[in-house]
Design brief:
This is protein-tyrosine-phosphatase. The protein is an alpha+beta fold. Helices cover about 35% and strands about 20% of the residues. Helix 1 packs across helix 4 and helix 2 packs parallel to helix 4.
């Protein structure tokens, strides 16, 4: 008898921002959509958060929409462009705290984006990069960061594409790139 019941998709992240100019309320927190820029793979939203009887807080949400849960984006180029837009904004902003990155479980897509940003900054600063070491370090603090083998491979593809775009190639004489061999534990 239960096999005839419809299967409802599991909600993995609540839709906490409004779809239009009408604010939405979550308990004592009101969220207002101030602006939105919709692109092919992602959307950037400017939100205003207001707690009852307290000051407001502007929030910029970078929403990558074409990244499937447990999967990877269709190409490295849009992800690198997204990371560049995000990094430029982070480097320019003077207000607020650290960025908040989330996906459904907070490990797979979240971990991949965080690792990509940190590793590309490391590459620019040190002319070397170690994806395996960094992901291992991330997993010491939060298990399953960069959750799937496909996400780990995608991370490497993004780094290699970044090197190609910047005219650098992985060699022993210039940029050092950790051996991409890995063990998925």
């Amino acid at each position: 008898p239960y096999s005839d019941l419809p299967v409802c998709p599991q909600v993995k992240c609540e839709h906490y921002w409004p779809l239009d100019a009408k604010p939405c309320t979550h308990g004592h927190l009101q969220v207002t959509l101030e602006g939105e820029e919709v692109l092919e793979d992602w959307t950037v939203r400017d939100l205003m958060l207001q707690h009852v009887k307290q000051k407001t807080l502007p929030v910029r949400q970078f929403h990558y929409m074409t990244w499937p849960d447990h999967g990877v984006p269709h190409s490295t180029d849009p992800m690198l462009a997204f990371r560049k837009v995000l990094r430029q904004w982070l480097d320019q902003t003077t207000e607020g705290g650290p960025p908040i990155v989330h996906c459904s479980a907070g490990v797979g897509r979240t971990g991949t984006l965080i690792a990509l940003d940190v590793l590309l900054r490391q590459l620019d600063r040190d002319q070397r990069v170690g994806p395996f070491s960094y992901v291992q370090k991330m997993r010491e603090s939060r298990p399953l960061m960069v959750q799937t083998e496909a996400q780990y491979v995608f991370l490497h593809h993004c780094i290699l594409r970044f090197l190609q775009q910047s005219g650098r190639v992985p060699t022993d004489n210039g940029v050092a790139y950790e051996n991409p061999l890995y063990e998925n534990v």
